[in-house]
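Q: Could you fold this chain for me?
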Amino acid sequence: MRYMSSNEIRNTWLKFFESKKHFIVESAPLVPKNDPTLLWINAGVAPLKKYFDGSETPKSKRMTNIQKCIRTNDIENVGLTARHHTFFEMLGNFSIGDYFKDEAIEFGFELLTDEKYFGFPLDKLYFTYYTEDITAKNKWLSLGVSESHLIPNDNNYWEIGEGPSGPNTEIFFDRGEKYDSRGIEILENDLENDRYIEIWNIVFSQYNAKEGLERKDYPELPNKNIDTGAGLERFACILQDVKTNFETDLFYPIIKKIEEISNVKYDGQAAFKVIADHIKTLVFAIGDGAILSNEGRGYVLRRVLRRAVKYGRTINLTKPFLYLLVPSVIETMKDFYPNLVTTEQIVTKIILKEEEKFLETITEGEKHFFESLGNNNEISGADAFKLYDTYGFPIELTIEYANDNNAVVDVLAFKEELLKQKERSRNARVVNDGMNEQQEEYLNYFDKSLFVGYDTLSIETKVIKVFEEGIILEKTPFYATSGGQVADKGTINYIDVTDVIKLPNGQFLHKVDYHFEENQVVMAKVNEQTRFNTEKNHSATHLLHQALKDVLGTHVNQQGSLVNEDYLRFDFNHFDTIENNQIIEIEKIVKAKIKESLDIVIKQMSMEDAKGLGAMALFGEKYGDIVRVVNMGYSIELCGGTHLTNTKDINDFAVLQIESIGSGTYRITASTDTNIKKELKVFMMHIDKEFNQINEKLSELNSSKKYYLDLSENSYQSVLNNKELLIEARSYLHQLEKELETTKKLSVLQNIDKFIGKNITKKEVIVTNDLDSDVLKELTDAIYDKIKAETILLINIANSEATIIAKTDGKTHAGNLVKDFTKLTNGRGGGRDTMAQGGTKDLSNIDAAIKAIKEKL
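A: Sure. Below is the predicted structure, expressed as structure tokens.
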């Protein structure tokens, strides 16, 4: 046995099973796809369930994987034991109706003991087996395992209610007396210990568990399966000869970083283990698309993060620190999971934001916790609810605090408080005092702030007010989110402005992650390119609005909009179907107005004068007596947003999508200039993906024809062309597949002599292999007619199952004949007196059944 890194362990596992003709399955995302029964992918077999239950057919009946997993059912033990984790990796090999017990055990023995692979000393390995599974025991014995290393166990049986079930065998590694002076009685009595480490579990999915039956009476499955799971962290612990999983190369680099930022030496403390484990969970889960929230898996992640923050405080980490560990996790894991590198920035940002949010309240929360303890060392339901509702403490975290302080929590009373809150939410508006006070602060602020962003994009100005969320400037070039146009991007004294919102009295609040002082002189600067791109889309929106009225009717009015630097989105009312040619016409009008180089003239005037010009008011905007009119000659609208000075600067325009978003409401998404190609590709991503899938199938059918996304036109016509091309591609593939099926069928029917033996009789059983199901009936008819038969029973074996077709002259009942055959093979079927059909997935008795039917005929 030699030292192996975690990557060597992974690669050894995969290469071994690849050499045994297993298909390597990539690790699935932690967030389950199309499986509402799972909160997380929690085992190597979880993403493969579709193959085990037969809903999908795998590329190979033999598969292997390294699957990332999350389990939080015993999160309280993480950090307190050597081997509990919330995030872990499971090594697996699987057989779907292919090899079974003998081969699975042989593979396990070879991989574990051969020096070419893991090279574990055989005398260090112990094996448990289901007490009645003598086959597994004898197989281990035949490979050289000593009987003294084989332990029967009545609990070695895997079943979850009705369905596939079976015995299992577990493999343990003995780390020696230094971890526990007790011997094999530990395994015999299934005692918790650090000496005998379970490294692998092999499940023989052999029986169909049925309610009301004893295990010995469970029927066997037609297709027996192998499902195994081995812990990467445990393999690493043994092969790297360390005390716990946390000293392996899977965790120790992260722990070293924790040492660095905490200035505390690691000596097995639970805090280091909890933090190292939980940050891996967060990085992987968020990277796979999970979010932190108050429900479902988001709640689980929030609890994981807050538990890590809580433990961080025990080693002097009182400021945000988890986000600093993200690079260590990625550096440790990126060789096998390179996608982590691409998600690093967003993962770091999300974790930091969540830490800051929790740390704002945790000190007060802890203070409330200890104040609530009183003399009876009990946290009431009301106090537990306050910790949850006010300080963001999940109830599980409160229970952990209580456990740490030898206290108890009245969980039942907490749940009652939670139900009361939900009832209040249903029946009335919940008043949030904090938000009301904050709004009142804004409502009472009247100091003047001047927006100068129509004329300049940078200005030296003064901070006139500092709020908790941001600052107010005496003059600002920043446009605040309003009228559908998003806020400007830019900097104040080189500090990024994250958002700009309009306050009740018209001032703009600039959100910045920095503390400015009132009366401080600053340089405010808007990002010029972002503003320019946003103005292109905004000016194009005005042209689009008028073009919609011209083509669809004057009843069309804006129902909502979004304008940013990448695209524009425009919602409008219309009570009829919109045809593609109408969208093309609308797009052509906008393109033409851009080419006409129309001056965009902006003036302030009275509402009455604006109405006289025929100006349109935008949805959701409030207007005073003096209004701002944006006049493009073709379009005249009231608008407070920023615009170009001439339509030619839009350069180009294209509709990306048209969709109905409700009764009588449509949404157009479009883009301008250099963003068109990029956004077209995004909106046609699903078409591109299907082209790739079709091309793969065409290659398999030896067709040289290929289909590709055509982005040659900056127009909605490009979308239509690609949709038509997709229809053509689907049709061509279908035609090719149909021609292939026809050719196969003709080939079979034109060569029926090869299915007819030399000494054929009037009553015959004919066995075929791997024929398509749609040719079987015609083949039966053809053989029946050719030999002028009285009875034909055709059995076709394909894809590990048999299809049975019977045709008779009626003297022998075809339906009964099929029933007799399927009874012998655990199948189903039946039919009329002259024609019947059936099938079975149990081929174990097929030869005997054929013989029995022949004798009967």
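A (continued): The longest strand covers residues 196-209.
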